[in-house]
Amino acid sequence: MRGPEDHSPAAGIAEAFDQPVQGKGGDWLAPELIAGVMRAIDALVVLGSGMVVSLFASFVPLARSLMAWALLLGLLLALAFSQLFGAYSDRVRLKMAAQGSRVLAAWGTTIALLLLLVQLTDTRAVVPERWLIAWGVAGAVGIVVARLGAARVVRNLRRQGRLARNLVVVGAGELGQRFVREVHGRDPSVRLIGLFDDRRERVPQFVGGFPVLGTLDDLLVFARRHRVDEVVIALPWSAEGRILECLKKLRGLPCDVRLASDLIGFHLPAHGMVAVAGVPTFTLLERPLGPGARLIKALEDRLLAALALLLFAPLLFAIAIAIKVSSPGPVLYRQKRSGFNGEVFELLKFRTMRADACDIGTEPTLGHTRKDDPRITPLGRFLRRTSLDELPQLFNVLKGDMSLVGPRPHAVAHDARYAALIDGYLARHRVKPGITGLAQINGCRGEIRSLADMERRLKLDLEYIQHWSLWLDLEILLRTLVHGFRDPRAY
What we know:
Blueprint: H1 9-18, H2 31-56, H3 63-84, H4 96-121, H5 129-160, E1 165-170, H6 174-183, E2 190-196, E3 206-207, E4 210-214, H7 216-225, E5 230-233, H8 240-250, E6 256-260, E7 274-276, E8 279-285, H9 291-326, E9 332-338, E10 344-350, H10 378-386, H11 393-399, E11 403-405, H12 412-421, E12 434-436, H13 438-441, H14 451-466, H15 470-483
Parallel strand pairs: 1-2, 1-5, 2-4, 5-6, 11-12
Antiparallel strand pairs: 3-4, 6-8, 7-8, 9-10
């Protein structure tokens, strides 16, 4: 980020808001995820090299029949020794050369132990030594090739900025200035974007060459337009009210929120805390899904949504024809809904109301759909009761606006209304909205008759976010299929 000598403060702020933060599209990437992928690649290399040697080694008559257990044994030993050698430790997580040398050492030790085991047990007829040596060489070559390829990929990702964590600081006073000085330049994987402070008139326009981009409310807008991975609140601990107000506003963002230690903390070790570029901080909020979980959920959504569209294609076609024949107007209804991080998207549904009444009731002062609502067509009443009107949202899932499972998205006006009435309501935007969710399978569907109804939905939505797992998603989907088509409150 440029300093004050490069351009005026106003120009710097405008540039920061208009230009996307580099690496915005790679929010699922992280060093721990790449390390996990490399573990899988190492396992495939070990297994694949053993299978290739077995297929082409004519001097191994019995190896083919006993290849399975031998490969499994070798794989387990290789992975065990990789752990002992620290091949995947944090210190060498993205250093492909160092990681590769440790994996090679572990693989060489594994082959040496297997050779010793064959000699001691006199099992050369079952597992010939030449086969083990050939397997060791082929595995080593595969590991070297995989490391060279991975090093190139990591280098390109670093050049694009997709492996860095985008960091903003709340507070540009003495503590914030000290924090910026301590963090800047320490860790290339941490990219400091700028600072935000409600007391603009009391703080400088630039801190260490980084601009003060606005107030805390400006940060909420900024975080919806750009990728922010981490927010550090750098306020004196004596400012309890300001810190609590920051936490209240920030808990709706899908990022980690940390509290910088007070001035004395810069001299203390980070025991029991999280270090940001070596500076100790306290974690106040963690993003609900880590990089690996986000990748798993994205694969789950795309695969299951594509499969569901294939299975329900005839039904979708039949419903579309029925809507077109039964009432004038479009087949699909598009409505603005609030999604992940508060971003607005167009939700797709089969039209169940008269075309001239579809948008009535989306204003914050009006209620939700109610029983015997005169706007709903006869066919629409059946579609809503059976939830078949939600099927087009599978396209929203494929597009990436929604997930199969998550908090149900509400109309933008309703979101604004409930955010003002219910404390913590916006925290449901920390994950993608879903076609179904934990609240829906627990009876929170249909008409919202009171504020208590929405509070119960919110409680279940936050419970889902806090305890997400692949198995929980599958359980919710299964229960939706079994019970979701006969809810008497869905109208």
